[in-house]
Amino acid sequence: MTEELDLSRRRWLKGGLVPLRPTNCLPWSVDWFGFTAGCTRCGDCLRACPEQIIVPGDGGYPIIRFSRGECSFCGNCVDSCGQDIFFDKQQSPWRQLASFGDACLAKQGIYCRSCQDVCNAAAIKFKPRPGGISRPELIGDLCTGCGACVAPCPVQTIAVLCQE
Questions:
Q1: Of residues 19 and 2, which shows the higher confidence score?
Q2: What is the rounded CA–CA span in Å between residue 78 and residue 89?
Q3: Residues linked to residue 62 through DSSP beta bridges, in sequence order
Q4: pLDDT given for residue 93 in this prediction
Q5: What are the residue ranges of helices labelled H in the chain?
Q6: In which band, very low, low, confident or very high, does the pLDDT at 11 lie, cut at 50, 70 and 90?
Q7: What residues does [4Fe-4S] cluster 3 bind to (predicted)?
Q8: What is the rounded average pLDDT of the residues 136-140?
């Protein structure tokens, strides 16, 4: 587990034990500094998540682990929290998009479309390529950052990254 509290000497000397900013914060959460300042690490959001993708991360702060599944944007994590660390659920939950790593089978010339098959938003397309295997292309305006494409990837090369 790479997102647990890192008590290494180098990290301690660099500034102490403040939690590292994770790749994936909870939907509708304020910026990471504001989130960690107000989060009590009670675990209510972990228990409220029907997909069970919210897990304790660095320092016990909740993060999203897309390798466990996708976010349905149900809002239970926000509703279960008694702290003022989330913004209005009527707004977009976040701005993060899927990203395909170099180990992608299609990029290696092997037919695979597992990410496209599970993308309900139809944000992943495979355009035909003359003389080769089609590669995944992300339509950023359609991608919700739900992470549905992450777990089914046979080589675990898809990440959902914040667009800041």
A1: 19
A2: 8
A3: 56
A4: 92
A5: 9-15, 32-38, 44-48, 76-80, 114-118
A6: low
A7: 143, 146, 149, 153
A8: 95
The angle at the Cα of 73, spanning 30 to 162, to the nearest 5 degrees, equals: 50
Kindly report, residue by residue over 55-114, the tens digit of the pLDDT: 998 888 999 999 999 999 999 999 999 999 999 999 999 888 999 999 999 999 999 999
SS3 40: coil
- Amino acid identity, position 101: G
Residues facing residue 98 across a β-bridge: 160
| Nearest Cα residue to 26 out of 56, 1, 57, 62 | 62
Output the known binding site: 39, 42, 45, 49, 71, 74, 77, 81, 143, 146, 149, 153
Structure tokens at 88: 């209005």
**Binding site membership for [4Fe-4S] cluster: which residues?**
39, 42, 45, 49, 71, 74, 77, 81, 143, 146, 149, 153
104 CA to centre of own chain: 18
Token pair, residue 38, equals 């107000």
* 3-class DSSP assignment, residue 109: coil
Report the distance separating Cα 58 and Cα 18, nearest Å.
9
